[in-house]
Specification:
Layout (H helix, E strand, L loop, with lengths): L1 E5 L4 H12 L3 E7 L3 H5 L14 H8 L3 E3 L4 H11 L3 E5 L7 H4 L6 E5 L11 H8 L4 E7 L9 E7 L7 H25 L31 H11 L6 E5 L2 E12 L8 E4 L2 E5 L4 E6 L3
Parallel strand pairs: 1-2, 1-4, 2-3, 4-5
Antiparallel strand pairs: 5-6, 6-7, 8-9, 9-12, 10-11, 11-12
């Protein structure tokens, strides 16, 4: 079965592609959303830093044909038809695929999504799950349709999320769950034994890109929730406003938390370190310089 894979940089795209290459699945092409100068650069002879790894680089090194999805739609459709994929797999791709592309693979197009659909549809579900303090993280593999993240689910897996993970660490845990789903999914699809479950629209939620105000934290949250949200979203580069006794304190980095009660004080400040009483627990964080 010939597979076309579409992704970008980051663990959510890179780890599944590594699996497909190492398991020697038949990859007929890799699609990337690349600017022309990047796409034309031949990186096979370059020394590339590990942090710059991308699906484009992995494809070039493995000799898998690349398709630049920034080409005009007619050119993209022509290029994909030429490689004739049986299935198209997508992970962490930021643009909607038009129906003309979705209709090409014989077995359809499938997308990895880092939430337990139908909850947390949208481009950055990890942000909102950490913000809401969810306990049940997970990943979903679903058939792609004209509506974002709404196609029938073919596989799901829960993901244990330890306290204090960074965005990179959370992405790696999610990506590994994707990889764990792939063998059974591909085998069932090839044998015609795949099962799909229509999403329950009454349970669906969609969240877009966060705004600055979405980084505000609240002392009514448990300290553990505030700590995990701040640690997992630190890469965005925002401060975390926190209102205490009518004053906004600009929290910047979460250092630690305790679940012990501390009813006597709402906060303690020592130089640039603040201890915030939550419900329940205490968060220790660094204050932003203003």
């Amino acid at each position: 079965m010939k597979i076309m894979y579409i992704g970008s940089s980051g663990a959510l795209s890179i780890l599944p592609l590594r699996y497909l290459l190492e398991a020697e699945h038949s990859l007929c092409a890799v699609g990337v959303d690349a600017h022309q100068d990047s796409f034309l650069r031949d990186t096979r002879l370059s020394i590339i830093a590990a942090q710059n790894e991308s699906v484009e680089m992995l494809a070039r090194m493995a000799g898998v044909p690349l398709i630049n999805l920034r080409m005009p739609l007619a050119d993209c459709v022509r290029a994909i038809r030429e490689v004739s994929p049986d299935i198209l797999l997508v992970s962490c791709f930021g643009r909607r695929l038009p129906q003309e592309i979705l209709d090409i693979p014989a077995h359809g197009c499938f997308n990895f999504h880092p939430s337990m659909l139908p909850a947390y549809r949208g481009p950055v579900p990890g942000f909102w799950q950490f913000r809401d303090g969810v306990e049940n993280f997970g990943v979903s593999l679903h058939r792609m349709t004209a509506q974002f993240d709404a196609g029938a689910i073919v596989a799901q897996r829960s993901v244990a999320m330890p306290d204090g993970v960074s965005n990179q660490q959370a992405s790696e845990l999610m990506a590994q769950a994707y990889v764990d789903l792939l063998p059974d999914f591909l085998s069932a699809l090839a044998s015609g034994n795949g099962h799909e479950t229509v999403q329950d629209e009454s349970a669906a939620s969609y969240m877009g890109y966060p705004q600055a105000e979405d980084f505000r934290v609240d002392t009514h949250w448990p300290a553990r929730r505030m700590y995990n949200f701040m640690r997992a979203t630190q890469h965005w580069g925002y401060v975390y406003p926190c209102a205490i006794d009518g004053v906004d304190y600009p929290l910047q980095i979460a250092h630690d938390f305790s679940e012990a009660e501390c009813p006597d004080k709402n906060l303690e400040i020592d130089a640039d370190v603040i201890r915030v009483t939550c419900q329940p627990g205490v968060l220790t964080a660094g204050l932003a310089l203003v």
